[in-house]
Amino acid sequence: MTEVRKIKRALLSLSDKAGAADFARSLAEFGIEIISTGGTAKVLRESGLNVTEVSEITGFPEMMDGRIKTLHPKIHGAFLALRDNPEHMVAMQTHGIEPIDLLVINLYPFEDTIAKENVSLAEAVENIDIGGPAMIRSASKNWRDVAVVTDPKLYHGILQEMKENDGSLSLETRRRLATFAYARTASYDLAISSYLAKQLSNADLDFLEPLNPLQNRPFIESEDFGGEVSADKRRTLPEFETIELAKVADLRYGENPHQQAALYETSERGGITKAEQLHGKEMSFNNYVDAEAAWNLVQDFDDLAVAIIKHTNPSGVGVGQNNEEAYRRALSTDPVSAFGGIVAFNRTVDAEVAKSVNNVFTEVIVAPDFNDDALDIFKKKKNLRVLRVPHSSPPFKGGADAASADGVVVLDRVVEIREYKQISGGMLVQTKDVHTVTAADLKVVSKRQPTDGEIRAMLLAWKVCKHVKSNAIVFANEKQTIGVGSGQMNRVDSLRIAAMRAERFDLPLKNSVLASDAFFPFRDNVDEAAKLGVSAIIQPGGSIKDNESIAAADEHGIVMVFTGIRHFKH
To answer: For position 456, what pLDDT does the model report?
Structure first.
């Protein structure tokens, strides 16, 4: 028979008091004595319930603005004492400690507090709960004797089991509740740690250096990048990194049907995970991956833009005066690969473009919003997934003079969005590639100067190239991509694939521009581009053979500009 324990005394200490009075009333109907802290006790008494305040148990009043109220042996001893241990029971009797069998608790709203705009450090600190996590840990450690309820969503199930067991809870339930409780305190501590880390400067982190055994490894310079990288870039990320994930939904399967998968969210605002699905069948693992790639691409454009993504690579990107014009241009780059693709917009989707999209088999539509007529059109396609995605907060671009209201310096390195890639035995962490290039950033290295039209075309190609798997080559004009080559082991093959796609769909390569995500190691890329009639090339520069590529550009009358920035995407 399943072991059950009768609940005789319960302590309620709640920041979120939703449903508390009804839950406590149900407990009282089982004859359970209700103990509570000040604010919660007030709410329960106003509901007509008899409540014993914690201060009556401990003999000490709440003090220091509520910082001290439950940190007392008569509370923690009531949770920690093992009921089947004679010595513990004698200690309880000697010191006047009565057991508490149920803790109902939720913590100060630290996460909600720091999510507010312009929250001060002082306000955040005051919302760090001390007594709550301490009680959760004490009660959960003794889960054989004590049940811990940390979420109002659990109230109904708890009461249902107690009704079925004459006011008792099973061992299995208490163990499960303890698991939830420890997950909650871990999540809470992580939120606090992450927030406080964002207030630290490099100097503040110096004391952690001896704790990192990898810190003193020699810095490896890479010719692949095209020059030296300052050694101080090693220390732009915190010494300790933690990730908090909360499950949103189980997915049907992963990349393939034999793999399990689920969607988890982080505390980052906006993004695909926070998207509202307005129509269509459930999203798959691959849908989410492709939707993320598509959304990130169009977010790099200030102008109205549309991107079509297939297997995380853009098959076409277009800009225009309206969605229909931009979509037609994106589609024309590669109408074959667009079949079964993801379409992303950076403006509200209208009915005119919705009609065009519905003529092509599409898996997912991603946009900041949709008008009613567009939604009605998309809903005619039963399986088409329609996602409304909230705009993400832009990465903070502070510096030495960027300070919070408390005067605490906030540095770029701790507020930029970070990306994670799992490898065996660990995790690679990097800041998100949010770098943008403007016309003013371009360094013209060829004899011929670019025209205004060539600059606009190169900037479009450069934005797209950032989102193409390396080695990446993009041909474009001012309004759209013309050919995309991705993921090849050498850059010339990527160039030829991009050209093949353009020629297949009768898109003119003559007078187009070419973007390369990394430098040219040899001049052969420039010579190949010249054969195709390319008029301008945008690339990072930094190769030890840059002079050969520049000389080739001059021989062919091609403009060449350097960005000084590489956009590898693996």
So the answer is: 97
37 touches 62 (CB < 8 A): yes
Beta bridge partners of 131: none
Q: What is the DSSP letter of 172?
A: H
**Residue 310 known to be catalytic:** no
Tokens of 399: 């510096």
Q: Which two tokens stand for residue 388?
A: 């409304």
Which strands sit side by side in the sheet containing 443-444, from one edge to the other? 443-444, 559-562, 536-539, 513-516, 473-476, 481-485
Q: Residue 36, Cβ neighbours under 10 Å: how many?
A: 24
Bridge partners (DSSP) of residue 38 are: none
Strand partners, 342: 309, 364
Q: What are residue 105's phi and psi, to 5 degrees? A: -155, 145
In DSSP notation, 376-443 reads: HHHTTSTT-EEEE-PPPPPPP---TT-B-TT--B--HHHHS-EEEEEETTEEEEEE-------GGG-E
Q: Residues 20, 26: contact at Cβ < 8 Å?
A: no
Cα dihedral across residues 189, 433, 396, 303: positive or negative: negative
Return the structure tokens found at 434. 């949010």
Residue tagged 């995605």 (tokens) = 389
Report which DSSP code applies to 221. Answer: P
HSE on the CB side for 266, CA within 13 Å? 15
CA gap 244, 266 in Å, rounded:
6
Q: What is the pLDDT of residue 119?
A: 85
Q: What's the Cα-to-Cα distance from 505 to each of 319, 323, 483, 530, rounded to whole Å?
A: 19, 22, 9, 20
Distance CA 542, CA 505 (A): 34
Q: What is the DSSP string of 305-361?
A: EEEEEETTEEEEEEE-SSHHHHHHHHHHH-TTTTTTEEEEESS-B-HHHHHHHTTS-
Q: Is this structure's pTM higher than 0.85? A: no
Q: The tokens of 420 are what?
A: 């994670």
Contact status, residue 247 vs residue 262, Cβ threshold 8 Å: yes
Q: Are 445 and 497 in contact (CB under 8 A)?
A: no
Going by their DSSP bridges, the two strands 305-310 and 341-345 should be labelled as: antiparallel
Top pLDDT among 278 and 197 is at 278
CA–CA separation, 278 vs 297, rounded Å?
22
- How long a stretch of residues is the chain? 570
Out of 8, 198, 311, 381, the active site residue is 311
Q: Which two tokens stand for residue 127?
A: 């919302």
Question: What is the rounded distance in angstroms from the CA atom of residue 45 to the CA atom of residue 33?
Answer: 13
pLDDT given for residue 221 in this prediction: 37
Rounded-to-integer distance, Cα 224 and Cα 537, Å: 20
Q: CA-to-CA distance for 11 and 39, rounded, in angstroms?
A: 13
Catalytic residue among 6, 8, 17, 141: 141
Q: Is 556 considered catalytic here?
A: no
> Could you tell me the maximum CA-CA distance found in the chain, to the nearest angstrom?
97
pLDDT band at 188 (very low <50, low <70, confident <90, very high): confident
Structure tokens at 5: 């324990």
More confidently predicted of 184 and 451: 451
Which domains are seen in the chain, by residue range? 4-197 (3.40.50.1380), 276-388 (3.40.140.20), 440-562 (3.40.140.20)
